[in-house]
Specification:
The chain is α/β, with parallel strands linked by helices. The protein has helices at 26-29, 76-92, 112-125, 127-131, 145-154, 166-184, 200-208, 234-244, 259-263, 281-286, 304-310, 318-321, 324-333, 338-363, 367-376, 390-398, 409-433; strands at residues 7-13, 18-22, 39-47, 50-56, 64-71, 98-106, 136-138, 191-196, 214-221, 224-232, 254-257, 269-272, 291-292, 314-315.
Amino acid sequence: MAAGESWKVRAQPGDRMSEIQSENNPARAAAPGPITPSTSLEIQVRGEGFDGYVVIDTLVEGTSAGGMRITDDLPLDEVRELAGEMSLKYALFHLPRGGAKSGLRMSSELDREQRMQALEEFGRRLKPVIDHGIYYPGMDMNCGPDELRAIYRGAGIELGAVTDTSRYTALTVYHALRATADALQISGRPVVLAIEGFGSVARHLAARLDPQEFRIRSIATIEGAVRGREAFLPAHLVAAREAHGDSLVDHLDGERTDRQGVLTDDVDILLPSSRIWAIDVQTAAALQAKAVVPIANAPYVEGTVAVLAARGITCLPGYLSNCGGVLASSLADQGIDDPQIEELFAAHYRTIVDGILSVAGKDGRTPVEVSESLARLHMPARAIPRDRSLLQRMWERFGASRRPAAMKSSAARDRFVHDCNRVQAEIVTMGGQG
């Protein structure tokens, strides 16, 4: 680390906060002591043109993972909240890794070359953390394959093909949407949707929707929001997004509204898909949708789930509905083709969502509460060490596409089915107890 650079690490075990400032030895600072399941590790990195954060909420087998978010107004609290959501996501589905998240506050006015330089620099600063397998960044908001490669390149690692996780995120949102619509017993007409944040995942989702079953009444992007004079056909929005990007709202036949107008539109199901905490208490009180199926993580401000439940509005947690970005892309990385992935999720993931909705309906809890109870069954037994070299870790994480065809796909498929069956069994037990 060059003179004048600083790398701040903060470890928070339980209620005690300790802070370590290191100028010369980031590897030592990355491990301020034994990291226990209750420890939150925060790293703040400042470089030319950016402020960066890494929050490691939990470690499992000595490692953690979570996406890299890039915006020009990113607060540390957002990264903390998302890291906690990742812990719940991995625990719910029995995945052997801890939850983490990273973020970069970087000006949107930087050109591409400047952005890539900043990302490489961020990766260089994180090299000790990545080298020790403590945290693996992934894709998230404004961080696609090129951005992710730049981060790893800065850490001295050249990535090959990087899976586009957005279409796999859309896969589980689709099944969660279908399950929720069935639970609402909407029949005889298309289910009407509002999507707050019509980005890459929403585009992939809309491409899956049968217009005989689903219509989209209103959408928002960073360029604005629009409510159709009649509900939009999904394929129409997909084509408009591909042609105009976020400015598609300027090319649709409808009345201009705002983000709040989309959140509170008179629809069957709302899909929040932008930043965290999209639904606050006031919004929850004004919500007209019958259900909320998030595309984004952490859409609910504290206290809003109770408000929604009191009003009879079904609400799913984001880490349940958007888990395909982790689960399905992991299967793809291990050589399982898309038709098999589609079959696995239609059969096994859909059963999990149906079960959570059923238990919630029987015992008076929300799907958010049921999901968190299931996840926390596995939270106490977190930090199990396993000695693996960096080469082994990187091969496990990114090397599957280079393996001989079907070398590990069968094992990955069996493991996925086994883990889903375990979750289903836990749901059955929970339902019996309820």
